[in-house]
């Protein structure tokens, strides 16, 4: 029934609001276009003081006065003049009956004839006195946040009479925060949410308009409080010049700034409000944002959210303010009147052409909020008490009028074309962003059990844990250790191989020496020599094969271990702090064994290489030795038909001619063995021969081959007594092999135990060593070789048993050839062509070398002495130059030819030459041996067998002297 009596609510609602059913700003609050100011009303509850003035609910008693203001307070009881019907409609000053029956059930029934205004107002939203701060926020400001973030300016201002709850609504209390806190909280939350998409910059300013002056509430401490000027900017709107701007990072920063500004705000107690704000406060948040993925032109959105707490209007007559308060009230009222005029003008089509914004600072500040590009929310605060009757009524009337104000909102979007330099900046920013995100990602991963929001990011390889690190350390330590010993291992291995091989070489040499030093011309000498050489060759070849097999075996093992090591991967994530797992131990063990094998493999490889080198060297040396032996045999074969004396002399000549070859070999080998044994004992799995072993083996044969300097020179090499060293010769001790009983002082000449000089370098000189021999210097005390100055040439060879004087055997030239061109002189001396004082090959080196004096005749074999003949001097090794430029002056022409490989050879000799043993296929034994085949020891033996079978040579001593038959059947004798 009452509802029917009430005027139609819809008639009171503006058209714009009638169409708006979905929200305070219509269906799409973020769309551009015309927008009406959102007008909301909040009715505060009665204050405790007002509650005491309320008329007791005594029935039948008139307790509510007429329309009285504050001036009438105390004299008459209060009544409620604002009745909220729903969230959009309120009734101002309803009749008592209606009030009592419908709006105020506790109020007494009206018993007066007083006329009530009974005006209904419809607003966008009406909040009753029990509305919470959150409800007010959600119904007024919250929709603006998205608008601001979409580039729309927005303003929220609280309007109303003093003491009606404007500050309470905008700022609130610490326990019940108002719109500022709630707005900032959500605004910053949304900014953080969009951080990965947009760069949002937020700044804040806070000012007050007090007595028509603008003051910065956040001015830095110490700054002079000056009135700030207002500027109008076509693009930015109204700007307060000199206003400080602050950049809060969080909502806490905002609240700190707001509290600081509130402290600075002018506030004074008045009769109406103990905490009356005497100024208009304007808090502005400036938002500037752009997309992170910007192109050539970047859209920059800017917007300003203004939260304004106006000062309350007051009637001077009622507020009883004096002095400053009165002045403040006058200014407040003036600015609010200017605001009311602007609102009236904005709503009046006729006056719309001129809006009096300039009438006050407040209206100038709110110019764009009321009539410009801005979404505006007006929160009208009013008191329900009758003491605020006039103020509330006027406020509601203005608010109702403000509903007609329409603003034209536009998105503040600005397209900023990026300069090239902008790209650099962007790249830098994005690089920093990536860095920051990576750090954040790493931090999130480091959290135990937490993947955080980076779970979607590609999983990086796991960082090594402590256990894995331990395993790595162990492996590295193993590697380092093996690397350290590897070089010394090589050294030892080399030494061992060289020492072993050199001992064998010396044995060969000793055997050769023994064979050649004898006067056995029946062929067994050369047979023995050949046997010794072949045996040594076979031995070394066998040794080489053994090393090669070791090498193959270890290579195979190494490959296998490496493959297994690859298979046994570390567990992906071993648990930190635990001991190594069995898998890890297995892998480490594999690695260790692989490393050991690597070392062993290296050692064996080195040994193999060395043995190969030595074998090659040995082959060359054997070839050289056999060349001499073959020449000797060739000579022997030629001597078959010669007379005994001639043959013996020729043989001796040949012996002396071949000897330098062996001496040279011996010199090199002695150096090798000295150096090798001095390098120290080798720790090698192939047990190296100890120096003492090598020496003892050598000594076992050396005494028998030391050439005797006494008597006949026919001393049996194996059975003869040990020779006594003499001046110019070298004993065993001088070789350094029995250094415990040195017989040669340092500095004196020395020769090897085999009767050969040991080339010890003089101080500062360099001794050329055979290939494959280590350069280690002798260091063992008992193996020091004796020093011998200037022993580099054949001229330093010790004197050897000279050949006996040639026996002149008269024979017919037709039957008795003189194949070697020995021409006896008439006086018993060699002929004029026989330059007995020079080597038969004309070696010029004789001039540089001391020539050995011939031994006394009685020292020569008796049967070889020929009267009037001078002994043939010992020869030095012929040089290539001497071979090519000079002819042997004397001695046997055959011997010279044989020695020089000349063309005059017997068929047998040529055949022997073709079968020359050259096991390693090394360089030609001599330049004059073009037809010599390269044969292995086995091939050599085979060839010998075949030749022996094919050409047994019934009575040719030369064949037996070659030793072929002896290889197969033993020495012929
Ligand atoms: N909704 C409300 N709920 C509870 N208390 C309120 C409410 N609104 C206002 N008050 C109280 O009323 C008193 C005055 O409020 P407030 O200071 O906010 O008024 P005002 O409009 O800001 O006055 P002025 O214009 O003089 O500054 C304060 O003590 C405040 O706590």
From TrEMBL:
<keyword id="KW-0067">ATP-binding</keyword>
<feature type="region of interest" description="Disordered">
    <location>
        <begin position="706"/>
        <end position="973"/>
    </location>
</feature>
<dbReference type="InterPro" id="IPR027640">
    <property type="entry name" value="Kinesin-like_fam"/>
</dbReference>
<keyword id="KW-0505">Motor protein</keyword>
<protein>
    <recommendedName>
        <fullName>Kinesin-like protein</fullName>
    </recommendedName>
</protein>
<feature type="coiled-coil region">
    <location>
        <begin position="420"/>
        <end position="447"/>
    </location>
</feature>
<dbReference type="GO" id="GO:0005524">
    <property type="term" value="F:ATP binding"/>
</dbReference>
<dbReference type="GO" id="GO:0005634">
    <property type="term" value="C:nucleus"/>
</dbReference>
<dbReference type="GO" id="GO:0051656">
    <property type="term" value="P:establishment of organelle localization"/>
</dbReference>
<dbReference type="InterPro" id="IPR019821">
    <property type="entry name" value="Kinesin_motor_CS"/>
</dbReference>
<feature type="compositionally biased region" description="Low complexity">
    <location>
        <begin position="706"/>
        <end position="730"/>
    </location>
</feature>
<dbReference type="GO" id="GO:0035371">
    <property type="term" value="C:microtubule plus-end"/>
</dbReference>
<keyword id="KW-0963">Cytoplasm</keyword>
<feature type="compositionally biased region" description="Low complexity">
    <location>
        <begin position="749"/>
        <end position="767"/>
    </location>
</feature>
<dbReference type="GO" id="GO:0070462">
    <property type="term" value="P:plus-end specific microtubule depolymerization"/>
</dbReference>
<keyword id="KW-0175">Coiled coil</keyword>
<comment type="similarity">
    <text>Belongs to the TRAFAC class myosin-kinesin ATPase superfamily. Kinesin family.</text>
</comment>
<dbReference type="Pfam" id="PF00225">
    <property type="entry name" value="Kinesin"/>
</dbReference>
<dbReference type="GO" id="GO:0090307">
    <property type="term" value="P:mitotic spindle assembly"/>
</dbReference>
<keyword id="KW-0493">Microtubule</keyword>
<feature type="compositionally biased region" description="Pro residues">
    <location>
        <begin position="796"/>
        <end position="806"/>
    </location>
</feature>
<feature type="compositionally biased region" description="Polar residues">
    <location>
        <begin position="876"/>
        <end position="897"/>
    </location>
</feature>
<dbReference type="GO" id="GO:0008574">
    <property type="term" value="F:plus-end-directed microtubule motor activity"/>
</dbReference>
<keyword id="KW-0206">Cytoskeleton</keyword>
<dbReference type="InterPro" id="IPR036961">
    <property type="entry name" value="Kinesin_motor_dom_sf"/>
</dbReference>
<dbReference type="GO" id="GO:0033047">
    <property type="term" value="P:regulation of mitotic sister chromatid segregation"/>
</dbReference>
<feature type="domain" description="Kinesin motor">
    <location>
        <begin position="36"/>
        <end position="405"/>
    </location>
</feature>
<dbReference type="GO" id="GO:0008017">
    <property type="term" value="F:microtubule binding"/>
</dbReference>
<dbReference type="InterPro" id="IPR001752">
    <property type="entry name" value="Kinesin_motor_dom"/>
</dbReference>
<dbReference type="GO" id="GO:0061673">
    <property type="term" value="C:mitotic spindle astral microtubule"/>
</dbReference>
<keyword id="KW-0547">Nucleotide-binding</keyword>
<dbReference type="GO" id="GO:0010970">
    <property type="term" value="P:transport along microtubule"/>
</dbReference>
<feature type="binding site">
    <location>
        <begin position="160"/>
        <end position="167"/>
    </location>
    <ligand>
        <name>ATP</name>
    </ligand>
</feature>
<dbReference type="InterPro" id="IPR027417">
    <property type="entry name" value="P-loop_NTPase"/>
</dbReference>
